[in-house]
């Protein structure tokens, strides 16, 4: 058992002063005022630091120089998670972008068989495709985009991991299949979609609950044909993931999204590719050399080809550049993605029996001083 405190303790919802975390066997036993600490319980005091639940990233394509789509295994995902951990992220959804159906199903099955995803910093699996709209393929291979069928849904039902997020284009899928996927506890996101706002509003009624990388690879705010962005920003119940690297979306539009969705429905993602969380600046993607320059990954024509973002930088961007209150910035990488996953009692919070995944931040510049996974926190801190 250990007790840990700091000048600022963010519990996933609010900042607490003069409180401590009581941790036992990798889980939170209690969050209590310092005045109630048992006299014999040693206290680790991190002084002026900020303690927060570990960050949660629901869209990670790579990191540490490793690409997940090239080798979509649990072992590779664990290496990517470890690379992002040094930047405050303690749980990720490794993201497989559009691949062959065989590769997609095999990846789902591999994660289905793994019994210790949490201990590796993994939440499950995010399949970004192949059931997309080729008109909004972006960097995805349009030749691999296929229609979703009832047979594929049935196969996924047998081999899916406990947490499976599926990004799809709702306008390409009938509502019965959306309802079937929803009944199988598969989380559904609209992305790489050219749907109208009405299409998405209808999809929200049939199981779609979020949108993938808001603004990017989707129909927008056209004044005559409002699209996915309009539906996402005006629907009060749905969630949205957003890349806050200041390159994929302008600061003005990031602030616009926050003003409409708020921290309880907007969560930050990195959409990180291999060079993220590393010192590499060249990434070979399907025979093409992509270059990291000025914080952007670009192809030879200057087109954005993925993000090299980490979640701690996303938090800093939102707080220091956009002026969003720190409490809200931290919500968007802790409790909000946890609520979306329906894991709000386990991740992204400090409450009884939640995982003791922690990140320690410097209050001045919000850089990461330390990150701890629940499985090793007691030995790491002693």
Summarize the structure.
With 382 residues, the chain is α/β, with parallel strands linked by helices.
Would you give an account of this structure?
The chain is an alpha/beta fold and 382 residues long. The chain has eleven helices and 22 strands. The strands form six sheets. The protein has a six-stranded parallel sheet with strand order 8-11-12-13-14-15. Strands 3-2-7-21-22 form a five-stranded mixed sheet, with no helix packed on it. The protein is globular and about 65 Å long. The model has no long low-confidence stretch (mean pLDDT 96).
Layout of SSEs?
Elements: E1 2-5, E2 8-10, E3 15-16, E4 19-24, E5 27-33, E6 43-45, E7 50-53, E8 55-60, E9 62-63, E10 66-67, H1 74-85, E11 89-97, H2 101-113, E12 125-128, H3 150-159, E13 164-168, H4 175-183, E14 187-190, H5 197-204, E15 208-211, H6 228-234, E16 240-243, H7 251-261, E17 266-269, E18 282-285, E19 288-293, E20 296-298, H8 311-321, H9 326-331, H10 335-340, E21 358-361, E22 368-372, H11 377-381
Parallel strand pairs: 1-6, 2-7, 8-11, 11-12, 12-13, 13-14, 14-15, 16-17
Antiparallel strand pairs: 1-4, 2-3, 4-5, 7-21, 9-10, 18-19, 19-20, 21-22
Helix pairs in contact: 2-3, 5-6
Using only C-alpha atoms, the radius of gyration works out to 20 Å
Q: Strand tally, please?
A: 22
- Estimate what percentage of residues fall within beta strands: 15-25%
Sequence stretches where pLDDT stays below 50 over 5 or more residues: none
Structural key phrases:
single chain; 382 residues; alpha/beta; 6-stranded parallel β-sheet; 5-stranded mixed β-sheet; 22 strands; 25% strand
């Amino acid at each position: 058992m250990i007790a840990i405190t700091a000048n600022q303790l963010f519990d996933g919802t609010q900042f607490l002063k003069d409180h401590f975390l009581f941790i036992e066997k990798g889980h939170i036993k209690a969050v209590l005022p310092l005045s109630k600490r048992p006299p014999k319980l040693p206290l680790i005091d991190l002084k002026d630091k900020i303690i927060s639940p570990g960050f949660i990233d629901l869209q990670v394509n790579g990191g540490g120089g490793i690409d997940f789509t090239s080798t979509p295994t649990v072992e590779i995902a664990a290496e990517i998670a470890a690379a992002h951990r040094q930047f405050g992220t303690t749980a990720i959804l490794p993201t497989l972008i559009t691949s062959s159906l065989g590769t997609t199903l095999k990846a789902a099955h591999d994660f289905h068989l793994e019994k210790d995803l949490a201990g590796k910093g993994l939440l499950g699996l995010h399949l970004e495709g192949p059931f997309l709209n080729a008109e909004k393929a972006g960097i995805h291979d349009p030749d691999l985009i296929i229609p979703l069928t009832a047979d594929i849904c049935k196969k996924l039902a047998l081999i899916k991991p406990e947490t499976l997020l599926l990004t799809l284009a709702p306008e390409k899928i009938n509502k019965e299949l959306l309802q079937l996927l929803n009944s199988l506890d598969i989380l559904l996101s609209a992305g790489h979609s050219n749907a109208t706002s009405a299409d998405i509003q209808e999809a929200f009624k049939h199981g779609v609950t979020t949108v993938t990388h808001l603004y990017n690879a989707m129909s927008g705010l056209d004044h005559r044909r409002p699209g996915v962005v309009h539906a996402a920003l005006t629907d009060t119940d749905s969630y949205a993931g957003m890349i806050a690297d200041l390159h994929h979306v302008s600061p003005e539009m990031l602030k616009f999204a926050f003003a409409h969705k708020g921290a309880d429905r907007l969560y930050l993602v990195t959409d990180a590719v291999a060079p993220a969380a590393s010192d590499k600046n060249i990434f070979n993607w399907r025979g093409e050399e992509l270059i990291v320059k000025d914080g952007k990954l670009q192809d030879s024509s200057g087109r954005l080809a993925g993000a090299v973002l980490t979640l701690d930088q996303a938090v800093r961007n939102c707080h220091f550049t956009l002026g969003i209150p720190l409490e809200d910035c931290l919500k968007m990488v802790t409790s909000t993605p946890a609520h979306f996953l329906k894991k709000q009692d386990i991740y992204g919070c400090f409450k009884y029996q939640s995982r003791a995944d922690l990140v320690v931040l410097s209050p001045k510049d919000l850089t990461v001083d330390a990150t701890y996974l629940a499985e090793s926190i007691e030995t790491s801190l002693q």
